[in-house]
Amino acid sequence: MPARFTPARFTPGREVLYRNIDGPRLASVRPCRVVSDDDRGLLLWLARGSAVVIEVAEDGRGIRDMPFAEWTGLRTKIVADTWQGPGLLKFIPPDADHSIWLFRDDAGTFTGWYVNLEERAIRWDDGDVAGVDVIDQDLDIVVAPDRTWQWKDEDEFSERLAFPDHYWVHDSSAVRAEGLRVVKSIEAGDFPFDGTWTTYQPDPSWPVPTSLPSGWDRAAAPRP
Questions:
Q1: Is the pTM of this model over 0.85?
Q2: How many CB atoms lie within 10 A of CB 15?
Q3: Percent of the chain with pLDDT over 90
Q4: How far apart are CA 207 and CA 196, in angstroms?
């Protein structure tokens, strides 16, 4: 697949919104801080306590609180929430249909990687607010510190594929093939599964965002 155009790189320390788009709708927005943006890819920090928004049904239930068949017929809304888990790194490689998250415990100790299979990130920059838009493809890979791995959410992935008129994943084989490509890197201990960033500590001067900037809900970035 040919490389796609990407805007100028983001400056370290800048706030960038990681936005998950489910089909035509905005499913979640998480404000992150740019750690680095170079030839390896974009590295973001999501701090505990950050203000986020998520999509829920009008009765308050989330997409995982019900069968997908029920979700497809409900009206939804966006609500404010807070990132409750420990801070984590999100790494977005260039021209790849996945991101890699580095999880840690409450003490800041690395606990493993999480491969989020997603339609590749589209960058956008409106000046006062910037971000990356991804389409989460639901199937994921959980990787322990010793690089043993397992698929995650296979049942959810299969359930949603049965509703092609509503589901935003249209090529399940491509999603799984992308995962298997990452598995080869996991098993080989390639970057970033070589220990890079596992002891990372964020800049203590970075404020935790307690609200989202104006423009967080702008239209999804167009895809080539």
A1: yes
A2: 19
A3: 93
A4: 24
For Cα atoms 183, 185, 187, give the angle at the middle one, nearest 5 degrees: 70
Q: 172: helix, coil or strand?
A: helix
pLDDT on residue 23: 78
* Amino acid residing at 25: R
> In the structure, what pLDDT confidence band is assigned to residue 8 with cuts at 50, 70 and 90?
confident
Task: For Cα atoms 120, 221, 117, give the angle at the middle one, nearest 5 degrees.
Answer: 20
Nearest-5° angle of CA 205, CA 115, CA 99?
A: 60
Q: How many CB atoms lie within 10 A of CB 11?
A: 10
Place of tokens 């967080």: 216
Cis check for the bond before 93: say yes or no (omega within 30 of 0): no
Span 82-90, average pLDDT? 96
Helix (H, G, I), strand (E, B) or coil at 63: helix
Cβ(179)–Cβ(117) below 8 Å: yes
What crossing angle do the helices spanning 172-188 and 154-161 adopt, rounded to 10°? 160
Distance CA 71, CA 62 (A): 9
Where residue 161 falls (left for φ over 0; alpha for ψ -120 to 50; beta otherwise) is: alpha
- The rounded distance, in Å, linking the Cα atoms of 196 and 190 is 10
1, pLDDT greater than 80: no
